[in-house]
Hints:
With about 220 residues, the chain is α/β, with parallel strands linked by helices. It has helices at about 5-10, 30-35, 50-60, 100-110, 185, 195-205, and strands at about 15-20, 30, 70-75, 80, 90, 90-95, 110-125, 135-140, 145, 160-170, 180, 215. A hairpin with a 2-residue loop joins β8 and β9 (about 145).
Amino acid sequence: MGLVELVQDRRTGTERIVVRREGARRPVTIDVGRLMGAISRGHVEIMRDDLGEVLHSASADDVEYVFGDSVASIFADGEVTFEHGPPRRFDLVIGADGLHSTVRRLVFGTADTRWLGAYLAVASIPNHRGLRDTLNGVVGVDRLAGTYSARHMPDERSDAFYFDSVTQLRLDGWCRGRVAPVGDAGYCPGPAVGGSTSCAAAGTGCDTAARGRHSPY
Length: 217
């Protein structure tokens, strides 16, 4: 996609993970480079908001973006109605709107969701500990907490906050007529395991092979 350098410039820079177990005397240190190197040579950790900015800046001149609106209904012929804007017709509708996808609900109905027994919360806070390249974590029975920094966010002052259940999503198929959900909307593995963004990018590349106008909703 020609975005490798832009993504790498925004990488968090986490090089090691230091885990302290409750009741243990010494922490365990994990080399992130060696760990991820066994999985992929192209692994990059990047904040979700940063990835969104990279994708938007690279496509803003060629793609029409509509903010502050949502899909209200989708018909078999590709007509889509919106909560605020006028109805439009598309050759292909890709639902990339997450685990709680409106597109999936409108077209596929109730999906098979399986709670994996945990919840995940992520918040940005001031970097009062001066963290740079290390993730510090504490692990106990039924709980885990950790703090780390992104190197281009020296103070991490942000209103960003995420909370959701760690849930796996299963569908019998990922296409119905002109509609295809991708990423967490179609096959969420659970946010705690990672990989959702990579799955979305790979899935979108396969599902948008058809020609014509595409809706990003």
